[in-house]
Specification:
The complex is a heterodimer of chains A (321) and B (290). With 321 residues, chain A is an alpha+beta fold. In chain A, 14% of the residues lie in helices and 31% in strands. In chain A, helix 1 packs parallel to helix 4. Chain A is elongated, with a radius of gyration of 20 Å. A seven-stranded mixed barrel of chain B has the order 5-10-8-9-7-6-11, surrounded by four helices. Chain B has a four-stranded antiparallel β-sheet with strand order 1-2-4-3, with helices on one face. In chain B, helix 1 packs across helix 2 and helix 4 crosses helix 5. Classes of the chains: A alpha+beta (321), B alpha+beta (290). At the A-B interface, strand 15, strand 18, strand 19 and helix 4 of A face strand 1, strand 2, strand 3 and strand 4 of B.
Amino acid sequence: MTIEVRKPGLSTTVQDAGRTGYYDLGIPPSGALDQYSLRAANLLVGNAEGDAVLECVYMGPELVFSEAAVVAVTGAAMVPKVNGEERPQWESFAVDAGDVLSFAYLTGGARAYVAVSGGVDVPVVLGSRSTYGLGALGGFSGRPLAAGDVLPVGSGSGSAGRSVPEDLRTTYSKDVEVRVMMGLYDHRLTAGGRATFLDTTWKLTPVADRIGFRYSGAELETVDREPPFGAGQDPSNIVDAPYPIGSIQVPGSVEPIVLHRDAVSGGGYMMVATVLSGDLDVVAQSAPGTRTRFVEVDLDGALALRAERRARDARLREALG
Amino acid sequence: MSARYSWGGDEFVFVELAEEMSLQANFRAMAITNALREQRPDGLVDICPANASYQVRYDPDVLDPHTLMAQLQALEEQVGDASDVALPTRVLEIPVLYRDPWTTETLMRFRDRHQDPDGTDISYAARINGYASEDEFIAAHSGSPWFTSMVGFVAGLPFKYQMVPRDRQIVVPKYLRPRTDTPKQTVGYGGCFSCIYSVRGAGGYQMFGITPAPIYDPTQSLPDFTDFMVFFRPGDIVKFRPIDRDEYDARLAEVEAGTFRIRQAPVEFALAPFLDDPDGYNARLLEVLA
């Protein structure tokens, strides 16, 4: 079975749970930016949780199915339509051979996830089907989808009419809190700089892609120093170092950038905090203009939040298993 | 000296071995991460050595964060200053067409982001490092070996540190504001690092030239990529060799024919004897490429 891409949407890529083990050579994890929506979409259609889906940013694609299939759309509020008729999100539905799946305008969030029973069956590269665009790796020819692409789909046994319980669905707001752990180079901030970072309502700029999400809103005060050899003159410069996924770098001490799943793996800008892994989903579903507060938690708080997230995932599996 | 440890959120530990760059700090990062790779506790996902730091990614549901932190601190103690470590590695020859037409065309599009809008990147670098001419600067850049102290930024991009005493090292700031374009295989410079851009894209390093040698091949169709799609590994030692346009075109033809190989030879690198006599050590090191 195949899916033909009639219109690619703004930027639609094949993504799964991501690849690990190559970050030391500059190959990032990639994978769905919103991992919860990935899992939910897959479970709805009877796939393994980490199977490959289509990640659709801001404007959805138009897809034609060569055979009957079971489909689910999760993530951003972007109503799917089959031959022009609306279908629910967070619920699996059937399509017939020749049916056209398209999308209404985005009304909340930023990224929708389209899962097909059987999973998108592009080749596995370094353990994952995810697209890493900068490296022209994985996904469909290592790039966003284009009109005329024909995607292979595996065979699956999903059924229509399954839905995620209301309380397990994500809703989206233009005002969000993103939980972070301070650290890395936050010692480069004065007490005032640190307070500014945590107290400011930051606004997401249009630079909001799989590599990084750039926020505007304030300038952070740094501690005076003699620049260490190899770092460069700007107070926000460090000797090039690895960047944790989710770390927040602040070039020039303005405009924090959350590095996401296609992050550059290292560089010379100070990082002052790291977004908790679960809250990377919140960042992923932030559209430009989203007002954001970074909320500090410590390690114990972070581990407790992980436990909460695992419990929610367990309920999802139970509901859709 | 003592390392500085920090959580990078719930899934990373970041360790800074030194605030400033030095080969000693880099060697410690490499020795610690090599030892950690051998220990490989369950739940460890990625081990990323870097210039004067390293980071690990781990699954805290499998590996308790405090257990990991204690293990890393014990490793630091055990490795010490790593001065007695001998690193099995290789010396590579990278041909470079300095002042090539493609990086020259690109840099001309971004003069408004550069310290010297009226000059080129290489003329600026030569001037601020006190070289009388671009040719003298090129001789210095290509004359000494370079140590690959980190791989990353994008897939397979090597950061290279010049293997000469600090007072002779080239130092050039990055662009004032990053460019949105850099040709693939550009030989660049930022701070105290030379690099080779593995893919086309944004970047802020000064651009001095281009190499015909692919260093990243996601299709693994070239012979240098039989084992893996990324060519460089931390610890590789590089000698840049200036070439002219004719040789550049000839090598490019070899790449396109699928016959190009990067000249390389295995060596063992030891830090203490290098620091004792850098020039003598470098001369012996580069003999393997003769």
